[in-house]
Amino acid sequence: MDQKIIALETERFANFPQQPHGGKLVDRVLKGKEREEEFFRAKQLPTIMVDLEAVITLEMIATGVLSPNEGFMNEEDYKSVLYQGRLKNGVVWPVPLSFAPIGNRNKEVVESLSIGDEVALADETKEPVAILKIEDLFAYNKEERAAQLFGTTDRNHPGVDSIFRRMGDVALGGPITLLRRVDWGPFEKIRLEPKDTWRIFYEEKKYRSVGGFITGANPLHRGHEYIHKNALETVDGLLVQPLVEMAKREYTRNEFRMLSYRSVLDTYYPKERVSLAPLRVTYIFAGPRETVLHALIMKNFGCTHALIGRDHAGVGDYYDKYASHSIFDDFSPDELGIEVQLYHEVFYCTRCSNHATEKTCSHDERFRLKISGTGIREMLRHGIMPPKEIVRPESSRIAMQGIQPKGLDDNQHSISPVGKTIKSMFPFYLEATRLGGTYRKEKLTPEELTIRDLEAATTDVRLNADRIYNDIYEEYTYIGDADRDMQRQWVTEAREALRQQQEMVVEDLKEKVKQAPETASDEFLYQDKEESRKELEVAEKILADIPPALRAEELKYRIWNPLPYHRYRGSDEPENK
């Protein structure tokens, strides 16, 4: 890009409320005649074969998603990022952007290269995808990389495993140019690159603020929706970007996740303020640092705000519950250049009758429905649509079609133990007899639960999640409504009948007490006076426990005014008759 174009780009972004990270939006995509010439030349260069994950990374670099990086890091930047979370020039960057080819044939090519050389990068079609200009070649320590980046060298961690499984021994640093974009299949028609979103947000729609939300392997659920709609109260627009590559096979397939998002956004969101675009990004950076990376990616798409949930980019039990929040303590708002909005775990409280977090709800787990991505996937796998308070039916119906594998095996097991699913979604079931009910004398353990318990818990929620607050509301309105026409007449009549019936019981027992002997001739056949009195006392307490039946004539005392209405309307004179 020549200096004149760079100046025009700088002037363009100066008028926007956001700036690309590092001050420039990288564009390394060749077009037209230049692309044709470089594509032909690339076929004459030494070639390194790359996999889909590397192709995705090349596209991210070339289209500006990873600005200000123009290629793969040299050793100086690599070590600065690994230990300081910043490029050597001080710009925040949380993860090393490295290219270390693996495979015997690639190893031979790497050994033949020197600084200043160029090498073609080709995909499975053996056609060039990009050209890399070599500015550095360096060996690195895989254990050191894993320990610094992920805080562990455990191969069970997917990021650690990826280092040892997918990366060679020598890293190549230098800028790249992209020769060929890969077609995104069903996602191509809704694909948006940074150059597109900056134009849409700030030139066409004239936004002054945009919230970004990157989400992983789950269909859109009510926790997502809670975050989105809270943000939409304060920002002009929302960019939702589900990740659509490199997900594990047992997750909901990408196409169905995107369709589940579209169905909910079309039905429940303000369409003119929300943009949905797939994000092809690798999972090699899984962990808290990936959360910072995602914030910077949102910034490069033009977002002024990054919306971060509790377990953003979480990996099993390797990190603290809120590690994706505390990681931002290492960076100042000014150097990040995007406002990070952190959200606590979202759940549905049946007592509050709304979605909430620990910061806004005081009720205990007897009343809570948790929103667990893993739990949602397992319910879908079992063929059970989660309660509407957890996932909108528009989302879960489509997502269920895309979940693999489905059902139970011969031992009635799935991928995740059913007890773990119940604990993650319906914690009340282990502690209480029912949703909002009394505590069990002995808590249930996840290990003893079966698919029948999942069905029972789900049925309980479907029947009673709405009912808890509704019942409470009806009790309050029955006592509170002075206009008795608002109330159900049959409740009043039932209460009157209850009182009349119990009054009959009391009157008969009073007669019984009068006639009861001081001492019964046969305690198995007759009652003495003391026992009859106890029976009467119980009946009178039951009568006192019956709630009153309220009628309009009995509530006239509630309606009184110190002055007639015409005086409140402003007249000091007596009302004309």
UniProtKB/TrEMBL annotation:
Pathway: Sulfur metabolism; hydrogen sulfide biosynthesis; sulfite from sulfate: step 1/3. One of its GO terms (molecular function) is sulfate adenylyltransferase (ATP) activity. Residues 19-180 form the ATP-sulfurylase PUA-like domain. InterPro entries: ATP-Sase_PUA-like_dom, PUA-like_sf, Rossmann-like_a/b/a_fold, Sulfurylase_cat_dom. The keyword Nucleotidyltransferase applies. Residues 189-399 form the Sulphate adenylyltransferase catalytic domain. Its EC number is 2.7.7.4. This is Sulfate adenylyltransferase. The lineage of its organism: Bacteria, Bacillati, Bacillota, Bacilli, Bacillales.
